[in-house]
Amino acid sequence: MKALLIEDEIPSSRRLTRKLTAENVEVVAELSSVQQAISWLRRNEHPEVFFVDIQLGDGLVFEIFKEIHITSYIIFTTAYDVYALQAFNYKSIAYLLKPITTEKLQEAIAKVKSFHAVSNRIEEIQQLITHAKETSVKNSFAVKIGRRIKIIKLPEIVCFYSEHNTTFIQTTNNQCFPIDYSLTYLETVLPKQLFYRVNRKFTIHKTFIERMESYTNSRLQIKLN
């Protein structure tokens, strides 16, 4: 298992690295600030789990998650419990208060391994559903929600959009889900009578287009209902 550390206290970072190494967890990088973490995450492959302090020298770690799409498991390591509720809005599986005991760290690592095993199995099932070669247009998409797989049918989809090198589905009940297809690929499998690629970033379900208006420089502005 590989891990990333985001911690601005060097002694704490070194202690945690030693503990993780003893548990056969490879620390791929030790980062100490919001900006350093954003820069590193944009240029490197993300490991399975992040160990992150919340209060960093240049802000709260939550600022990183606003800038970078993260699918890795997150374990918060902090001296404060006031952020616990906010922390669990993210894909966090543990909230460890400093000083971190070996027992608590082992429990958190075991939880990551358990979740990862389940996730791998779900990925296998999802690939059978979503990655099979289609012989006709798609009429639904499979998305992962925690340990479950949800099937979203075309009438439920307002649009597909691209952001941070990831494609998302936006549904009629205002939910967003990442999928493994590019907008370019979707053009080949979506029914053209229903979906319209309006630009590089959006493909819209025509049913939800209320009107189109002339805009500047011979462009169109699309209004959705």
What's the SSE blueprint?
Layout: E1 2-6, H1 10-22, E2 26-31, H2 34-43, E3 49-52, E4 55-56, E5 59-60, H3 62-67, E6 73-78, H4 84-87, E7 92-97, H5 102-130, E8 140-145, E9 148-153, E10 157-163, E11 166-171, E12 176-179, H6 183-189, E13 195-197, E14 202-205, E15 209-214, E16 220-224
Parallel strand pairs: 1-2, 1-3, 3-6, 6-7
Antiparallel strand pairs: 4-5, 8-9, 10-11, 10-14, 11-12, 13-14, 15-16
- Strand runs, count: 16
The overall average pLDDT, rounded, is 85
CATH topology of the largest domain: Rossmann fold
Strand portion, in percent? 25-35%
Shape type: elongated
CATH architecture of the largest domain: 3-Layer(aba) Sandwich
Distance between the termini: 46 Å
Tell me the CATH superfamily of the largest domain: Response regulator
Using only C-alpha atoms, the radius of gyration works out to: 21 Å
Number of helices: 6
Largest sheet: 5 strands, parallel
> Could you give the order of the helices and strands?
EHEHEEEHEHEHEEEEEHEEEE
Enumerate the spans where pLDDT stays under 50 for 5 or more consecutive residues. Answer: none
What is the CATH class designation of the largest domain? Alpha Beta
Report helical residue fraction.
Answer: 25-40%
Structural class, by secondary structure, is alpha/beta
Strand order in space, largest sheet: 2-1-3-6-7
> Could you say how many structural domains there are in total?
2
